[in-house]
Specification:
Number of strands: 13
Helix content: 40-55%
Oligomer: single chain
Structural class: alpha/beta
Order of helices and strands: HEHHHEHEHEEEHEHEHHEEHHHEHEEH
Strand order of the largest sheet: 2-10-9-8-7-3-4
Shape: globular
Strand content: 5-15%
Largest sheet: 7 strands, mixed
Bound molecules: 4'-deoxy-4'-aminopyridoxal-5'-phosphate
Length: about 400
């Protein structure tokens, strides 16, 4: 017998919360744990443009034959345009190669496996705090994790000095994980001039950026949110991007993302990509087709693309409205503490500053589920549930 001595694995800090939420019998329970967009009715509907693309695909589909290892070609070129912009030098010089991959998580894992097997870079710097799954993904692949400062709890703001000071200790060839936009969990992003500084630091210290880009379009807009990536990419010779369409196309369960490698020249990019393909072949062989076909159908049709941009803007604006309403309702519930910083944060999350104990009380006493770090998914708030949430928060403060 080989299985009997295996210990129980701990529940995932975010998805485990959803399991606990499902078992909770209380009628007015609220799940603000996992980052899933909900509309005003509390639903996560399929985007209209996705439904339209699916109708086109259903009609046009002739085969379920395998895709190539790198997935749908049209999809991969569309991804590059979204990341770098239409007429970017990197694309023109063929310095970027992209493979469709299963979600942002699958893309990050492919990146990690590729790095571990093909480079001498074994250390990855991540922000403190970062998305809970980062350590899990990269450590499982065999990378050593180090942290750089990012957030100042007292001011609820960026600690850029700490970030730069910590990264001074990085060695040439070290990898640095950067959130493209809508930093998870803090919702605080670098300014353009801070991106310039980080890009220059990568050049000076020979660090290799790995962008995790899971929320393009949820911050200020599709092009605006790519600014940081584009600023850094214009400076450094090499980088990786793992992007996801789970959120901005609402394609959570289709598992659709991509891994893009940028190298100093076409030949190196092509050779690196051949190793990425080898990694994919040994992992899941080739990606599932549906998500890639949906995204490429929408992005290659001018009308559908414009409609998608409107749908994305609606999601972005609704979250922004919920941020303002959340801050106002806390005030009207008598909360004296200043929570106005929440309206300055970007993306789906609000890093509330609530303690682990307060988070536990919210769950146990009020059925309000948020992540242990105090991260609240504002994307799950509605006009209906905000009063419930704010009353509960007022009680635990
Ligand atoms: N990176 C970050 C920062 C995320 O927040 C997420 C989703 N929660 C992902 C990657 C992974 O996205 P996906 O669901 O597409 O795997």
């Amino acid at each position: 017998m080989i299985f009997s001595q295996i210990p129980q694995a701990p529940a995932d800090p975010i998805l485990g919360l959803t399991d606990a939420f499902k078992k909770d019998p209380r009628a007015d329970k609220v799940n603000l744990g996992v980052g899933i967009y909900k509309d005003e009715a509390g639903q996560t509907p399929v985007l209209k443009t996705v439904k339209k693309a699916e109708a086109i695909l259903l009609d046009a589909e002739k085969t379920k034959n395998y895709l190539g290892i790198e997935g749908v070609e049209l999809y991969n070129t569309a991804v590059q345009t979204l990341l770098f912009g239409a007429k970017n030098d990197i694309i023109n010089a063929k310095r970027a190669y992209t493979a469709q991959a299963p979600g942002g998580t699958g893309s990050l894992r492919v990146a990690a496996e590729f790095l571990v097997r093909n480079t001498d870079s074994k250390t990855l710097w991540v922000s403190n705090p970062t998305w809970a799954n980062h350590q899990n993904i990269f450590q499982t692949a065999g990378l050593t994790i180090k942290e750089y400062g990012y957030y100042k709890a007292e001011t609820h703001d960026m600690d850029f000095d700490a970030m730069i000071t910590d990264l001074q200790a990085a060695q040439p060839g070290d990898l640095i994980l950067l959130h493209g936009c809508c930093h998870n969990p803090t919702g605080i992003d670098l300014s353009s001039s801070q991106w310039e500084t980080v890009g220059q630091l990568c050049v000076d210290k020979e660090l290799v950026p790995l962008f995790d880009f899971a929320y393009q379009g949820f911050g200020a807009g599709i092009e605006e949110d790519a600014q940081g990536l584009r600023i850094v990419a214009a400076k450094v010779p090499e980088l990786l991007v793992a992007n996801s369409f789970s959120k901005n196309f609402g394609l959570y369960n289709e598992r659709i993302g991509a891994i893009t490698v940028v190298a100093a020249n076409e030949e190196t990019a092509q050779k690196s990509f051949s190793q990425i393909k080898k990694t994919i072949r040994a992992t899941y062989s080739n990606p599932p087709a549906h998500g890639g076909l949906i995204v490429s159908t929408i992005l290659s049709d001018e009308t559908l693309r414009q409609e998608w941009e409107v749908e994305l803007a609606e999601m972005r604006q609704r979250i922004a409205e919920m941020r303002v309403l959340f801050v106002e309702t806390l005030k009207s519930e008598g909360v004296k503490q200043d929570f106005s910083f929440i309206s300055r944060q970007n993306g789906m999350f609000s890093f509330s500053g609530l303690s682990k104990e307060q988070v536990n009380r919210l769950k146990d006493e009020f059925g309000v589920y948020i992540v242990g770090s105090g991260r609240i998914s504002v994307a799950g708030m509605t006009k209906q549930n905000i009063p419930v949430i704010c009353k509960a928060i007022a009680q635990v403060l």
